[in-house]
Design brief:
Helix content: 25-40%
Number of domains: 2
CATH superfamily of the largest domain: Vaccinia Virus protein VP39
Number of strands: 17
Distance between the termini: 39 Å
CATH architecture of the largest domain: 3-Layer(aba) Sandwich
Largest sheet: 9 strands, mixed
Number of helices: 11
Radius of gyration: 23 Å
Length: 390
């Protein structure tokens, strides 16, 4: 089947996540900047559970005629066959990059009414496309309802049906509902943590991988690793409160999601020192958000001295982490950068003498690293993947 992955607000990072974890999907192509069309045989529902940066997965509706009238009749019949749970036919339409299809929602309603005596309701939005929340709340997944998405790919119109959406309620629960959360220390978004993990994992089966977070904070990376299927988790932090928070969060996750096979060792530790709790070459992947520096007020920036302290911290941490990482392991880090004016920390200084080199995250787009930022943030995150130098 042909699937369309709709990426979220960070499409480059989302594509890097998808093609790192599932390299067989790299042959797809991008439409309108954030829709990735590719042949895929995996279950869309399962794929959605694995990924952090995909907000919808669509399945292309086959057999669409290039003639508009024939296309409308075909899709009206498709909607009728998909909406079998309720007497009323409920559907919505999203139009991407194809303003000429503005009236397609009403045209479909007329065609459905000509083919059936069932009542019809069209879900509308002020925006050209329906959000994942609207699709979920309005019941626009079969057999209750349908969302059709129309994409213009070059001169061709692609019609696809939404078959999986991001579970925004579950993400919110993991972000705000878990214990051990401390917003004052800064919080790595769970979706970003999952994307970083997938970029580090590559095609490896999560259950066979050991994961270490040497800046564990409140445990976000380790929680997402456990939910992906990793069962051997290590975490450390220089702050005892962070260690306690991470343990609390992992216990909550284990009970909340019935993860009986998850084993974790979380300990107080300075990341620049050799990890006494871990054997040499015991971690398959290391994924972490490094210490980001002090919180910045509006108009503030870190001094040159503060930036150099961070560079030195990361350099020393990488030198010590090399001992616990397996020879074929990967490190994925979120390193801070100043958003406005944009100023990145010098990676060559961070890596000097560590034995690690940058492993380009999205090579076909010429991106060695990817910048992640939210609107109005003063500090962003540079996502870096490292491997041992060759």
């Amino acid at each position: 089947m042909k699937l369309v992955f709709q990426f979220g607000s960070q499409p480059d990072l989302s594509r890097a996540e998808l093609t790192s974890r599932f390299p067989e999907l790299a042959a797809g192509h991008l439409v309108a900047g954030r829709f990735f069309i590719v042949d895929c045989s995996e279950s869309p529902a399962w794929l959605m559970e694995q990924l952090g940066g995909v907000v919808k997965i669509l399945e292309v509706v086959e057999g669409i005629s290039k003639k508009p009238d024939e296309m409308i009749v075909h899709l009206a019949d498709h909607i009728l066959k998909q909406t079998t749970e309720k007497p009323k036919v409920v559907y919505g339409v999203s139009i991407i990059n194809a303003p000429e299809l503005k009236g397609v929602g009403i045209a479909l309603k007329r065609a459905i009414q000509e083919q059936s005596e069932r009542s019809v309701r069209v879900v509308v939005s002020r925006d050209p496309e329906l959000s994942s929340a609207t699709v979920t709340l309005e019941g626009l997944l079969p057999p209750r309802g349908v969302e059709l998405v129309f994409l213009k790919d070059s001169s061709q119109i692609v019609a696809a049906q939404t078959v999986a959406v991001q579970a925004f309620g579950e993400w919110s629960e993991r972000d705000y509902g878990r214990p051990g959360r401390d917003a004052k220390r800064g919080m790595l978004p769970p979706k970003l943590a999952k994307m970083m993990l997938n970029i580090a994992l590559g095609a490896r089966e999560p259950s066979s991988v050991s994961v270490y977070d040497p800046f564990c904070g409140s445990g976000t990376v380790l929680i997402e690793a456990a939910l992906l299927g990793a069962t051997r988790l290590f975490g450390s932090d220089i702050l005892k409160q962070a260690v306690d928070d991470t343990k609390l969060s992992l216990e909550w996750t284990r009970k909340q999601f019935n993860l009986t096979d998850v084993n974790f060792d979380v300990f107080k530790h300075d990341a620049t020192q050799a990890a006494a709790h871990m054997k040499r070459e015991s971690a398959d992947v290391i994924v972490a958000e490094t210490f980001l520096g002090r919180p910045l007020k509006k108009g503030e920036s870190l001094s040159a001295g503060e930036k150099q302290e961070l560079v030195t911290l990361y350099n020393r941490a990488l030198k010590s982490l090399g001992a616990v990482l397996k020879s074929d392991g990967r490190i994925v880090l979120a390193i801070p950068f100043q958003v406005a004016p944009r100023e990145l920390l010098p990676l060559h200084e961070i890596l000097e003498g560590t034995g690690f080199t940058v492993d380009p995250i999205l090579n076909d787009a010429g991106l060695k690293t990817i910048l992640y930022m939210r609107p109005d943030q003063r500090t962003g995150r540079q996502i870096v993947r490292l491997l041992r130098g060759v």
